[in-house]
Amino acid sequence: MTHPPPQKPPEFFDMLLAYKTSAIVSAGIDLGIFGALDSLGGSGNGRAGEAGVMSDAVAEHLGLSPRGARLLLNALAALGLLESDGVTYALTPASANYLVPGSPQYLGDMSKVLVSRWEWEAFGALADAVRSGGPVIAEHAEQPDYGYWEHFAAYTGPVVRPAAELVAAQLAGWAAARPRLDILDVACGHGLYGYTVARQHPHARVFSLDRLNVLAVARKFAAEFGVSERATMLSGDMFEMPLGGPYDLVLVTNTLHHFSTDRCLALLRRLARVTAPDGRIVLVGFTTRDVPPAEDAAAHLFSLLMLVWTYAGEVHAELTYRSMLQVAGFGEARLIPVPSLPLSVIIADRRANEVTAT
Question: What is the set of domains in the chain, with CATH numbers?
Answer without folding.
Answer: 9-106 (1.10.10.10), 148-354 (3.40.50.150)
